[in-house]
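Input (structure):
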């Protein structure tokens, strides 16, 4: 029985010590550069002000009210579920649209790259006039068209 009493006294002492540690003081001070600091120990060589910390209180908003009927609670949950579903579908739609735009851009870039490679590999370059006849292009005009094609590819596909 004596050992039991000693253990009880020891437990009470530990609990009191732990609660005292949990209620540590908080100090505020300003350093040489004008910065405000907070800590649980007094700083050496600094004038510090002890701050009274309020005791933690239960917030009435955190405690769920039992005044709500089950039917009203189910109705609220249903509205929340519908809202979340709508938002999820909207996000999926945006994601799908971005994916489609990305695929379209990749296809356009691939076509432009193939066209650019063709332009660089062809020795004789011509275009068709209104009647469908071939009109051969000068070297100067070809260089200009190559530069335009390269610029178009860079603008559309470099980003």
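Output (sequence):
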């Amino acid at each position: 029985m004596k050992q039991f009493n000693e253990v009880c006294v020891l437990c009470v002492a530990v609990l009191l010590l732990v609660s005292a540690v949990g209620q540590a003081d908080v100090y505020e001070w300003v350093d040489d550069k004008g910065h405000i600091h907070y800590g649980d120990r007094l700083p050496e060589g600094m004038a510090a002000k002890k701050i009274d910390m309020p005791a933690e209180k239960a917030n009435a908003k955190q405690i769920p009210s039992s005044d709500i009927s089950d039917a009203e609670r189910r109705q609220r949950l249903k509205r929340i579920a519908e809202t979340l579903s709508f938002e999820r579908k909207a996000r999926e739609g945006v994601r799908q649209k971005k994916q489609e735009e990305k695929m379209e851009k990749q296809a356009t870039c691939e076509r432009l790259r193939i066209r650019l490679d063709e332009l660089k590999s062809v020795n004789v370059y011509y275009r068709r006039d209104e009647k469908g006849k071939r009109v051969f292009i000068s070297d100067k005009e070809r260089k200009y068209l190559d530069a335009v094609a390269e610029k178009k590819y860079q603008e559309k596909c470099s980003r």
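Notes: The beta strands are 26-30, 36-39, 49-51, 126-128, 134-136. The radius of gyration is 39 Å.
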